[in-house]
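thoughts on my protein:
***
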Amino acid sequence: MDREIAPEYIQKENRKKWIWGLLAILGLGALLYFFKSFLGISISSDKIRTGVVQIGEVDNTINAMGEVIPAYEQIIASPIRASIKRIILTPGAKVKPGNAIVELDKSLTQIEFERYEDQLALKKNGIEQLRLKLNKNLFDSEINHKIKHLNINKLKADLEDARRLEKVGGGTKEDITRAENALKIAELEKQQLENELSYNRKSMGASLRETELGAQIEGKNLKELQHKLKMADIVADRKGVLTWVNDKIGSSVNEGEMLARVADLGSFRIEGSCSDVLADQIKTGLAVKVKVNETMLNGIITQVKPAVSNGVIGFSIQLEQATNESLRPNMKVDVYVVTGSSPRTLRIANGPAFTGKRKQFVYVVEGNTAVRREIEIGLSNVDYVEIKHGLKAGENVIITDMNDYEHLGEISIEN
């Protein structure tokens, strides 16, 4: 009679089977790995891109964005408070000196100008009236002075008569005293009139100068308003292209509010921007390379904006070829700020194979085989990578992304 197998024995045998199965799978995986590593895998030559190590200059750059703007752009503002009556030219139109751009309704300012004219006329009329009045007062003071002089002469004669009469017994001492007092009073009154006459002469000049100065101020205000009215004829004063115009007909504009912009499209500059994380590396005077389509232009940072907006720092770039025909207004361009340079070093064309790590592996082409080799990277930019160690001039390196083959020491290349 057969005996029943113990459950513990069955579980033990099952565990052994699982362990041996797992070991077999691991061994097979290791075997496949070593076969791939040592036997190698081939890759078609048309699926890879290579670069030759050469000696040359490598610049270390910071990537940024830029916008092409005219080097010169005139802002035309309203010189008066007015309303937009008519739009004569639209954005994109070429303008020459004297071309009208916008017509403003100047009626309110014209009324104010006429009011200033009336005020100035009143001032001038007031000056003439004041001059006549002062001349009359001066004339009256001079006449009174002459009358007082004659009166003093009469009183002197009366005093002499009183003295002669007193000598012959026809008068008294009181008559002489009375005549002397009258003469003294008249002389004092004459001094008072002389002082008043001198004051009137001086005050007449001061009063006239004050009134004339007020009239001069009114005249200057009138000239200023007249100039503003003339400037309210919104015309171009130089050759260029109209890039923007306030086309809201009927809307009111205040004095100093922008009406139009005229740009000279013969010369351009770049307004660059990058993350504020790189703000400490962006400095005035740094060289810059600007990629416009397929053209690379050189420039220099002339100004770094002091304020940071939304995590972005801005800077201005002056181009060596500011009149390059590839430049267009408002064009977006790639900007590379040069922060370091190696003038004569080993370099190779940049590509996906270079990950940005200081030390990494690449595949060097040796005949029909690509051999894995460790290298050390230095400076880099969008075009080139500096090779500090691991490669020699003239060697051919795969610059295509080789992450799928990074476990292989060698790869066969099929032509």
In short: Helices lie at 7-39, 107-168, 173-231. The radius of gyration is 51 Å. The chain has a mean pLDDT of 83. The first strand starts at residue 41 and ends at 44.
